[in-house]
Each structure stands twice: as C-alpha cells, then as structure tokens.
Amino acid sequence: MNNFTLGSYMPYDSLIHRLDPRAKIMGMIFFMVAIFIPAGYFPYIILGVVALVLFLIAHLKLRSVWKSMKPMLLMMVFLLVINLLVVRTGYVVVKLGDFAIYSDALAQTFYIAVRLVLMIMITTTLTATTKPLDLTLGIEDLLTPFKVLHVPAHEIAMMISIALRFIPTLIEETQRIMKAQASRGVDMEEGKLKEKIMAVLSLIVPLFVSAFQRAEDLANAMEARGYIPERKRTRYKQLKMAGRDWIMLGCSFLLMAVPILIAMGYLDPLRIGSLFLEGVGYAL
Asked: Which tens digits make up the pLDDT trace of 44-63?
C-alpha cells in the first residue's frame, strides 16, 4: 500500500497540472468510454500510448500503477479461472486430458487486465494532478445544467471529493492498524483459514470504527464553520477554460471517436496504423 497514488495530489508543475479541472474530468470520461468500446487490439495500443505519455508529462512514477494493481491480482486470477472454465470458444491453446484452454478465454482475461490498467492510469493522472478543491469545483460546474432536474450538484461534487480525499487516509490508517496488530502477535499471512478470518476481522472492525469517527469529526467541523449545503454559495476561485483546455478536450473526443468508428466499421485500423507509421517516418 506504500506510494498508493490514487486520490493523492502530487504538487508538481506540469502541463497536466495547469489544465482546467473540467477539461480533465471530461477527458477522463471520454477516455473511459473509449476503453469499453469493443474495437479490437489497435485502439488499446493507442489508448496505452496516450495514457503513458500523460503519465510521463505529469511527472508520475510508473511503479505506482503496479502498486495499485497488486491488490487486484487475486481478482484477476479468479477471473482467469472463471474464464478458463466457462469460455469454450476459439481455438485450443493447451489441452490437459479432457480439459482444454481456449484462446477466447485468455483473450477475454487479457482485455480485462488491459482495461483495468488503463483505468488506473487515467484516474491516477486525474487525482494526482488536480487539487481536491479544484476537483470539487469542476464536478459541480459540470453537474450545474442538471440542476433543472433538481440534481444536487454541489452535494454530489462534495461527496466525490471527500471520498477521493480520504482514500490515502484510510490506507494509512490500515497500515497503522496492521502494524499495531502485528506487534500484538496477529499474523495475517500464516495460519489456518479460521485464523486468517479472525485476523482480517481484527483489522476491519477498528478500521470501520476509525472511518466513522473521522466522518463524524469532519461533519462536526463543517457544521462549526457554518457549512449548509442548500444555501447559495459564492466562490473565491473562478474556473476559466483556456485554449490548451479546448485542445485537450478535442483530442480526448477524437480518442473516443476512433474506437467507435472502428467498431462501426467506418475506419480500418490497418489503414490508420500505416498512415501513422508514414507520418512518423516523414517527421523523422
């Protein structure tokens, strides 16, 4: 859990940090839509290159993605086993007696893993380059048109911002409780299944108590400062879109449009790849 960057703001000075939070949020939404478009492997190559470039421009460390993926490895293994048992299409890759492993089972698991990595990279880029207050203001501005439908834009934005802000805090609290339990002789890695369950319970119960206590303290602090969600509020900081924000939005929209057009059959990925290589060769 060390160096877990999701939800943590990294105070660097980069182009991504200087972008308007609304542009970054909309760009993330376009990117997420593109991830789940079934258009083959080629769009994932493009999305992976873009996510990697954004990660490097924001001065973030790639090992943080691996650290964020480690808790999900057990889930990935479980999905792999389920796919191997359920998916029976494609050609046979390995045959062990009466049991056969099909290519579509491996491909489906690979798709899930790639999507998960891309989602972690893009959400980490958003939270690491956007201050919690800016994120709240950006979400509230984007939800403002829905106020005509009586959608509580400010309350939703505040809840999302608080949830993202408390992810690193809860992780630090989990580490503190684990060290305290280990000093009392609790072993969460060795022992029988019943002992492991009891060890996990000894971690979950104090973690929930601590989380509820922090939530109560935060609510009391907000009430003491006169915070009333329903009241009309003024802002000291006003968000303003610049030219680079509109350019980023346009590029994000194109990034979403390409997989959609490929999935609909209007674009040929091989043709796009050849044009891309020709452009790179011409530039060099």
From this structure: 888 888 988 888 898 888 77
- Structure letter (DSSP) for residue 12: -
Is residue 184 classed as helix, strand or coil in its secondary structure?
A: coil
Triad 137, 140, 142: Cα angle to 5°? 110
| SS3 at position 125 | helix
Q: What span, in angstroms and rounded, lies between the C-alpha atoms of 223 and 85?
A: 54
CA 133 to chain centre: 19
On whether the CB atoms of residues 23 and 248 are closer than 8 A, the answer is yes
Over the stretch 187-209, which tens digit does the pLDDT of each residue have?
666 666 666 677 777 778 888 88
Task: Report the candidate in 75, 84, 87, 86 with the shortest Cα–Cα distance to residue 112.
Answer: 75
Closest CA to 37 of 220, 283, 267, 277: 267
pTM of the model: 0.74
Q: Angle CA(34)–CA(58)–CA(248) in degrees, nearest 5?
A: 45
The residues that bridge with 100 in the sheet, in sequence order, are: 95
The range of the structural domain enclosing residue 60 comes to: 1-151+242-284
Q: Compute the distance between CA of residue 254 and CA of residue 269 in angstroms, rounded to an integer.
A: 15
Q: What are phi and psi of 95, to 5 degrees?
A: -125, 120
Query: Can you read off the two tokens belonging to residue 183?
Result: 């000093």
Q: Do 270 and 210 belong to one domain? A: no
Q: Do 124 and 68 contact (CB within 8 A), yes or no? A: yes
Q: Which amino acid is at 123?
A: T
Same domain membership, residue 82 and residue 43: yes
